[in-house]
Amino acid sequence: MYCSQCGRDNRTGAAFCDGCGNSLTGAVPAGTVFIGRRDELRVLDDALSQTRAGSGRLLLASGEPGIGKSRLAQEGANQADDLGFQVLWGRCLEDPSAPPYWPWLQLMRGWLELAEDDQLADAVAGD
Fold first, then answer.
1. Is the dihedral of CA 59, 79, 46, 40 positive or negative?
2. CA-CA distance, 109 to 61, in Å (whole number)?
3. H or E element: which one contains 58?
């Protein structure tokens, strides 16, 4: 499926773009106002500020289906992108046939598509 935000041609049936995380179903168009979740947005903002200062963070969202985890992650990605961070996406498939390490493979493939040759050389130097 084609992503209208970044132009990536995604796998058939994908709900979100593997490149930028944009909804491919049209349920949450880019730029949609995000209402509520003040505490969670504060945590995202603090994490991005700390990362910018050189101390990275890992944030996890969990909960029942349909409560807005993906939408919250999209909002965090939008904030990070606005601040100039490189944003990559990986998603888990709720299917027993999902490839091993699928979210990590998506992240690595996304980075490999964006990385310059000198970045790749630095990343594998000595390996």
1. negative
2. 23
3. none
Measured CA distances, 21 to 4, 55, 96, 107, 124 (Å) = 11, 24, 23, 11, 27
User: How many Å apart are CA 20 and CA 127, to the nearest integer?
Assistant: 29
What is this structure's pTM?
Answer: 0.67
Q: Cα separation of 56 and 50, whole Å?
A: 7
pLDDT score for 31: 59
C-beta separation of 19 from 28 below 8 A: no
H helices then E strands: how many in the chain?
A: 4, 0
Whole-angstrom distance, CA of residue 83 vs CA of residue 96:
37
d(CA 102, CA 108): 10
pLDDT at 43: 93
Quick one: CA dihedral 40, 46, 47, 48, positive or negative?
Answer: positive
- Strand pairing partners for 23? 16
**Tell me: the pLDDT tens digits for 12-65?**
777 777 777 766 765 455 556 777 888 999 999 999 999 999 998 888 888 898
Query: Which residues face 16 on adjacent strands?
Result: 23
